Amino acid sequence: MGPGRMHADEVETDVGLVRRLLAGQFPQWAELPVRPVASSGTDNALYRLGDDLVVRLPRIGWAVTDVEAEQRRLRRLAPHLPLPIPEPLAAGVADVGYPWPWSVYRWLPGEEAQADRLEDPVGTAEALAGFVAALHDVDVVDPPSGGGRGGPLAARDAATRAAIAALDGDLDAPAVTAVWEEALAAPVWDAPPVWVHADLAPGNLLLRGGRLAAVLDFGALNVGDPAVDLLVAWNLFSGAARERYRTALGVDGATWARGRGWAVSVALIALPYYRDTNPALVAQSWRTLREVLAG
Prior knowledge:
By secondary structure, the protein is an alpha+beta fold. Helices cover 39% and strands 14% of the residues. The protein has 9 helices and 10 strands. The longest helix is centred in the C-terminal third of the chain and has 22 residues, at 253-274.
């Protein structure tokens, strides 16, 4: 049995598939216990492998990345960052009916971040800001090519407005539209692109003892506008913690407006798509919209 299905056309995975992939490509791990990991993540199915490893299998075509390039970038970034990030151990290839590259990482213990689990929200915001600032400061070498998050918000305009229309009656459409249009009107990023995580959601932040312990899931890693890494200011933080995150990063008004736009757009687009398949992500998206509209 595998993690719950989230996409109509996703590839099904289960413990048996993981065992067959390991047996064919990494027999040194083939006898270790395998069990699915419950997660609100939408792109990859995760399987705990023994006590110390995790297998990551893309669920759907848009989540497929160049695994070897992704792992190479993680190894290059890790020494520059003040918190642990996933440590790649092996890159698998399509086999035994599974169509895509897949990966094995070292397991990082902890629990997904949620606002009510933060012992010190302001301290967490400061710690994450330090991580994000360090990431943005790493020299851009060997960046991914093509699209992804971090480009101009205008590229998301049609999809964001379609989501607002689909949710009409469930939200304050004029208020949300006003936030979105303010973000679109903000000056675009015209400085050199920087490394961006691009998916700083609670499920990609790991806590131990209520404190930030690691940053996970670099599948959206890209170079571009640092505003995309302000998502977390609304999907996790509020009040003083949000302000501390902004202050610690030294964010100007235009970047902050684009960050709000990213938070609104990501939340809106997720809601109609995952309404019936991912209750945790739906709840997080509604929280994000409430926080954005609260100011």
